Amino acid sequence: MTASGASLLAIIAMGTAAPAWAQDAAADQDASAQTGDDLIMGEEIVVTGRREALQSADERKKNADTIIDSVVADDAGKLPDNSITEVLQRVSGVTIVRFSALNDPDHFSVEGSGIQVRGLSGVASRLNGREIFSANAGRSLLWGDVTPELMQAVDVYKSSSADQIEGGTGGSVDLRTKLPFDFDMGLHAAGSADVSVGDLADEADYSVSGLIAGHWDTPIGEVGLLVDGAYSQLTSRSQFFRIEPYFLTTLQGDDYFVPGGFDYGEQAFQRKRDGIYAAAQWAPNDDLTFTGIFFQSRYRNRGDEWAEIVAQQTFAVDPTQSQFDSNGVLVSTPNLYLRDPATFNPTGGAITQGGTTGVNKTRTKTQDMSIAFAWAPADSRVAIRGSYQHIFSTSEANSLSVFRDFSGPTGYGLDLTGDLPSVTVPGGFGQAQYDDQSRYLWTAAMPHNEDNTGKMDSAALDIEYDVDSSFFRKVKVGGRWSNRTERDFNNGYAWAALGRGWNGDPQLTFVNSAPGDSELHPYKDFFRGAIALPGQVYYPSLALAGTLDVDLLHRSPPAGFCADPYYCVPSGPLPQSGYGGSDYRQSGFLLPNDQRDFSTRTLAGYIMTTYDTPLGDGNLSGNVGVRVVNVKNESQGVIRQLSNTYIRNGQTVTLAEVITPREGGGNFTRFLPAINVIYAPDDKIRVRGAYNITMDNASFQALSAAGEVGVATTANPVAGDPGIFNRFTTTQGAPDLEPTMSNNFDLSFEWYPRPGTTFHIAGFYKRLTNLPIYAIQQRPVTIYYNDGTTEDTMATSNAVRNSEEAATVKGVEVGGRVFLDSLPGWLNGIGLEANYTFIDSANPGDIYRDILGNVQDDAPLQGLSRHNFNVAFLYEHDPISFRVAYSWRSKYLQSTNSNGTNPLFNYYPAPGAPVEEIQLALPVYGSSYGSLDAGVTFRVTEAFSFTIQGTNLTNATQKTLMGGYPNGSLYTRSWFQSDRRVKVGVNVAF
């Protein structure tokens, strides 16, 4: 949860200047660039640590047969950052999401979560070239779960060849681990430790890692063993302020856009991650090698959240005292108040503020066990490689949110003209009212539980024949079988009211809180003092929410505790927790309602030939092939119809509580050609061209056969009567979703004038079909009524479907690095690295609904930033390694279906006029964001060094934006600030 990392751009390195003890085997093709010293202009330039790792990555890129970028561990055996996402964030064409998920714009993530390659989120995850995943109803690994200390290198593939596993419309990321035979003969060891602290979290964290590797020549052949382990802890805190959508509002006969309120709060996280990796290799002779690998990464996270919610659809202002922009959108008012839709007069009543305390505990574990062999006889043209792999992954999530209401003031002042928002409270309402616990009501609780288990077995066999002709050099054929299954338990987000009087138990206030169940939460140094909050408020205690026990909350108060069966203020504190409300979802899973089962069986085969021939003064090489893939998806679950009573066509009807099994799937065969051409006019230049077709199988979540059927109603004007029918709704997925296909064209130019200095420029074009999109649509359902009758009808759904129109992505990357080696003395360690990526996209198949309810199709691809750049100042001169790096990306679409921006809005054109219902689905964007980081490493001895790092040094503010407003305008939805962090560490290698 920091911000650094990468390959062609300098990383805030934890590099040392100790002697190199591990070599990247794939880069041995050019040993001259791996050496510890180069002669430049007659002066010896000692190359160690991070600079040597950068040069190793350059050589891997230069000698690859596809378009790739690499990040290589330094000579202390460490990648440079706290997570794989951070490692990748400065690689040319790669961006990371600063939220817990791309489609979750309300939860900031300091370390970042998913990644995009060239603007696309379809990024396949690999471990040593083989598929790996997390059991999260998706297809890829959760990158933050993986311990970076276990990696030797990370490769980002931007084009593919036929012998690579299918998947990744944007590309693939291969995590390469260290192997015993990468080391020289003998015993080797390395270790690191560091301590860090964030200025908001104000808690010390630490990480440790260690590796022991041995490589020996024995009577039974060469034998190698390696054990690598790591543990790290990171505590972070972020604060947010959020504006609700600006609803169409008639004020004094004219239409304006007035926000539906505001929210604020903070989120605290502590993640603990550990990993263990072991590898064994045996080469009984020079022709045969066996390799066995065990890899395990575990991730545990606790998230605590406090949020204040002021959200209503009937806010209004006096337009003569307020300020609006050219679109009629409110930017400042001294009084945001509630009004009566029937009269348009202020209600004069207190504004109810919602509030919540939430605790979320997650843990994931991924294990990969594989065995492989490589047989390549020196006297034969045939080489055979094979492997068998078993993956076991689990993921658990348990959360509880406890809600309360607060009787607030009659209005708020709101000023959005500055860089940060400002909220004020009218005179006469102050901290004394916020301290009055009788104004706080216990209102609701919402538990959520997940328990997922995923498995995969796969086997692969590759046969290579050395043609040894003047043009074609090798022919490869191979096949792969895999069977992946996942069983997911998910009980949804079961919001249920506590005692409210009307539901059988009395309404309790915080005066009635059992000891320790409520507490004042001080928002310390909110936005570092730049945003003044209306007051310090009380919440359900963190200890209470942290029990994750919803049954505890829903116990009724003791008999006779409340003199008034409806409202319970005078009774004082409860002897124990229990705030009523008998109609609630109990803890745990209800089977089969909460179970979803998935499977994907894949059969793939390929044929590929490589070629290599002189062309003029240079050389032409590459490969051409085709991969044929058959995919069979299956999904099982149930459709649950929720009981509800409502009025339809003047009649009162009741839906039955019904569970209906549902299953489905799809069977698809796809042909994936791949052509890679490399022209090298000399040893310093590579000109590459590539064409390939890639595919992404739909996520298990999108394929889910399970879901719910219900009914949406509008409020009945007759108090106490059932709601009035609006439409049927459903959340069922689409098990027959087709894979997304991408036709990819790439052209790049690379220049390597001398070790450490590089330049590249690359253009790319992608055409994607069958993209999964969220869109409001009609789906057939069967409705079951309490009287035994049924009805086949259509229900509104916002689930995933395949886009009916193709999307396109095109762009260019340019970047490079230079060290000023010709300068005298200590100045020759100065370097500069930078890259820039421009991406343009069109995605007419994805739609949203603007603020007036109109359907629009001008959204870009989700996760794609038009502009991305990184720049770093480098200094590498023994014994000092220094970095100052800045990474920036422009705005990008997060979701067209985000919680809070897709309500059904009731528009009142005039006092007492019939309501007009407007369905909204506003797009939410991550705003442009940049982060500055710095680090310095001092080599004390040949085997020992220490580092100092700082991240988020400029205290960057991450914003999100709402679209769908007149003239294409975007308005800030939320502001986030998080920790600035300092880390001190030591590294040893011997």
Q: Give the uncertain stretches in residue-range form.
A: 1-44
Beta fraction: over 45%
Radius of gyration: 30 Å
Number of strands: 59
N/C terminus separation: 30 Å
From the spread of the alpha carbons, the general shape counts as globular
Helix content: under 10%
Number of helices: 6
> How confident overall, as mean pLDDT?
89
Output the structural class: mainly beta
Largest sheet descriptor: 22 strands, antiparallel, barrel
Describe the structure.
The chain is mainly beta. Strand 13 and strand 14 form a beta hairpin. Helices cover 4% and strands 56% of the residues. The protein contains six helices and 59 strands. It has a 22-stranded antiparallel barrel. It has a five-stranded mixed beta sheet with strand order 3-10-11-8-9.
Write a compact overview of the structure shown.
The chain is mainly beta and 990 residues long. 49% of the residues are buried.
